[in-house]
Design goal:
Aminopeptidase; seven-stranded mixed beta sheet; globular; 159 residues; alpha+beta
Length: 159
């Protein structure tokens, strides 16, 4: 198993992984494909096992108005047959050790119980436009106390 930055040649494998990991949603596939098509600045890694992409993680810019205020984690995906084996956790731990990730506040919209294992804490500020009451919105390294609504890259679509 190897973790590395993806190359354009394996973007199609990332899409296949996202389709299998999120079978009831095209959102994640479309999001990452648009990131790649638009050359949106993201930080991403894949986990490869026997020439197959079995896990993927991406981070995109988080904004306070026009100013970058951190990074959004997501999507994080693991192929169904490799889930519940610690592969997603290992990939996320790897990403969190990377200098470009460590130096930024991180935000994630997802299962707070899962992300708590990595040091994320539910946050009330900033406000997530996709999550009423910030119930599933967590942060790591966030010191924000001033109210604002966090924003995302345009590929995420309207709030």
């Amino acid at each position: 198993m190897k973790i590395r930055k993806p190359t354009p040649e394996i973007y199609v494998k990332i899409s296949a992984l996202l389709n299998s990991a999120f079978p009831k949603s095209r959102y994640e596939v479309k999001l990452v494909e648009q990131f790649h098509d638009n050359d949106t600045p993201i930080h991403e890694w894949v986990c490869i096992h026997i020439n197959r992409v079995i896990a993927y993680v991406a981070f995109s810019n988080a904004y306070n108005g026009n100013k970058i205020c951190g990074l959004h984690l997501g999507p994080l995906a693991v192929a169904p047959q490799f889930q519940r084996q610690g592969i997603g956790s290992e990939l996320l731990r790897f990403a969190l050790r990377q200098e470009v990730i460590k130096k930024s506040p991180l935000f994630v919209l997802g299962n707070p119980e899962f992300y708590r294992h990595f040091g994320f804490k539910q946050c009330t500020m900033p406000i997530c436009p996709f999550d009423k009451n910030n119930r599933h919105f967590s942060a790591l390294g966030n010191t924000t106390t001033t109210p604002f609504t966090i924003d995302y890259e345009p590929e995420f679509g309207p709030h």
